[in-house]
Design a protein that fits this description.
Blueprint: H1 6-11, H2 15-22, H3 25-46, H4 80-115, H5 118-132, H6 136-147, H7 151-177, H8 181-188, H9 193-229, H10 241-250, H11 256-284, H12 286-290
Helix pairs in contact: 3-4, 3-11, 4-5, 4-7, 4-9, 4-11, 5-7, 6-7, 7-9, 9-10, 9-11, 10-11
Length: 291
């Protein structure tokens, strides 16, 4: 095979580039929306906003959208657009950090249960099932009563709620892999269980967890907004999307744009991560790729 052979150039492409070209149009749209949400979240974390989101301006209460206030102002004269951007930082931090921590813990617990002895598998399944049967809202109330409403409280609720699902998926994938030919060959060559798990099991288990985690991020964003809406999450004056929706609900007749400004980011984040997750699922699944 020569260097001028087109097949040689095709095989030399970066794997991420190949995967990106396999993504459908909806997944690319989702990736664009996700990138927009991440940029907004980063801008919110560093405070890169046109106006002070905490500054009261009672003279401009319930102001309509204008050049100096792109989405208008709320009942205290605060700039709605700046509060939406800062709220995106809270939403992205809680969702990505919560899903990431839960995915890592679930991967560790699931692979250990699936690759370990039978008693460890049975004990792990019992604990995971017991944790999953506990209602999320009751868990949220319990954690809030103990630790108080805050971003850290929401993060704990998200991690505890998601770990059982990731652990069960990792366990199922590990059980399917432990008797594969290449795993048995590694064992026959004297490879340790830790080496087999790190070099063979985790790389094969991580892909489905990544797809599930991508689709779980909108759920986590909705949990954070819902808890903040009912007063169990981020407390005022922090501009969470849930507190924006709560203010918009209370003052819907005076400021309908406040309710719209809090709803549109939730819809865009949900569409973006859902489309991206479905595209990753199709790109990483060999059967779907062949079809």
């Amino acid at each position: 095979m020569t260097k001028d052979d087109p097949s040689h150039l095709q095989s030399a492409r970066h794997p991420l580039l190949v995967v990106s070209r396999r993504l459908p149009t909806s997944a690319r749209l989702g990736a664009a929306l996700v990138a927009l949400a991440l940029l907004a979240g980063l801008a919110g974390l560093v405070g890169f906003v046109p106006n002070d989101p905490y500054k009261f301006d009672f003279a401009n209460r319930f102001a309509a959208p204008a050049w100096d206030h792109w989405l208008g102002t709320d009942n205290l004269g605060r700039d709605i657009f700046s509060r939406v951007v800062v709220g995106s930082g809270i939403a992205m931090t809680v969702s990505i950090a919560g899903v990431g921590i839960a995915m890592i813990l679930g991967l560790m617990v699931g692979t250990a249960a699936g690759f370990g002895p039978r008693w460890l598998d049975s004990t792990t399944i019992f604990l995971l099932d017991s944790l999953r049967t506990f209602p999320t809202i009751l868990l949220a109330m319990l954690v809030v009563v103990i630790a108080g409403p805050s971003v850290f409280t929401i993060l704990v609720i998200v991690v505890v709620s998601l770990v059982p699902g990731y652990a069960r998926v990792a366990r199922t994938q590990t059980l399917a892999l432990r008797n594969e030919t290449f795993i048995l060959a590694e064992r026959s060559l004297g490879a340790s269980p830790l080496r087999i798990i790190c070099h063979h099991v985790i790389p094969n288990v991580f892909a489905p967890l990544l797809v599930i985690g991508c689709m779980d991020i909108p759920t986590v964003v909705a949990i954070e907004a819902g808890l903040s809406f009912i007063g169990l999450g981020v407390r005022p004056p922090e501009p969470s999307w849930g507190t924006l929706l709560q203010d918009g609900y209370v003052h819907v007749r005076a400021t309908p744009w406040l309710l719209v400004a809090g709803s549109i980011p939730l819809a865009l984040v949900t569409l973006g991560f859902t489309f991206l997750g479905e595209g990753l699922r199709d790109a990483l699944d060999p059967k779907r790729r062949r079809s």
